[in-house]
């Protein structure tokens, strides 16, 4: 019995060392796993070195696990553009533009990628007020318009307070005029902010990803051929109630039906 007890006592340190060794191995494995997680710096470095495949994988992992922003989408678009994957490049540039239409680099890269597409877009003439609205809308992103709305409304309230409590006629007139002016600006800013928020929530545009697509008159392959569009073309989704087909409209106003699997939502 004494020998068995002594043997057990001798095995305890060995078992403890084995357990410690297992824990160390686990820590090393976890550390290696953590080190394998791509960082933004590593993704940027891979892009600079021309390893676009590694850069794309890293950017996609970061977007999926850490959230999106306009810069990440633009960088991903740059990678696809370098690989001559024009449709994918346009898709991510459009997503970047949706998040931050005020970024000139995003707008430039998007226009550059569009010049490499087969289809040359002929947009319909728009009213001046529509063009003016779209240009103003692109001055700031949704956060910028939201902050500006709050600031303008605060100035409106401040000037309204001056108007109510001031006893001097001249100051009351000036404060009333500027209060009305800032109120108008705050309403416009609020409209821009809500419009951009709506664009972010209601994703009703897509990019054609297939080399070429025949647009049909009805949601069936037996429908009449209307026209052909090519990869990289931006379309607006009018009706997505069908399971395998969607009705689309082009910038020039033409409409028709295409299979849902030939496009990707922006």
Estimate the strand proportion. 5-15%
Q: For the largest beta sheet, what order do the strands appear in spatially?
A: 6-5-4-1-7
- CATH class designation of the largest domain: Mainly Alpha
Q: H/E series, N to C? A: HHHHHHHHHEEEEEEE
Number of helices: 9
Total strand segments: 7
Radius of gyration: 29 Å
Mean pLDDT figure: 87
Word description of this protein:
With about 270 residues, the chain is of the alpha+beta class. The protein has 3 domains: about 15-120, Tetratricopeptide repeat domain (Serine Threonine Protein Phosphatase 5, Tetratricopeptide repeat), CATH 1.25.40.10; about 130-200; about 205-265, SH3 type barrels. Helix content is about 60%, strand content about 15%. The strands form 2 sheets. The chain has a 5-stranded antiparallel beta sheet with strand order 6-5-4-1-7. It has a two-stranded antiparallel ribbon with strand order 2-3. Helix 3 runs antiparallel to helix 4, helix 4 runs antiparallel to helix 5 and helix 5 runs antiparallel to helix 6 (about 105-115). Residues about 1-35 have low confidence and may be disordered.
Quick tags:
single chain, 266 residues, alpha+beta, Serine Threonine Protein Phosphatase 5, Tetratricopeptide repeat, SH3 type barrels, 3 domains, 5-stranded antiparallel β-sheet, two-stranded antiparallel ribbon, 7 strands, 13% strand, disordered N terminus
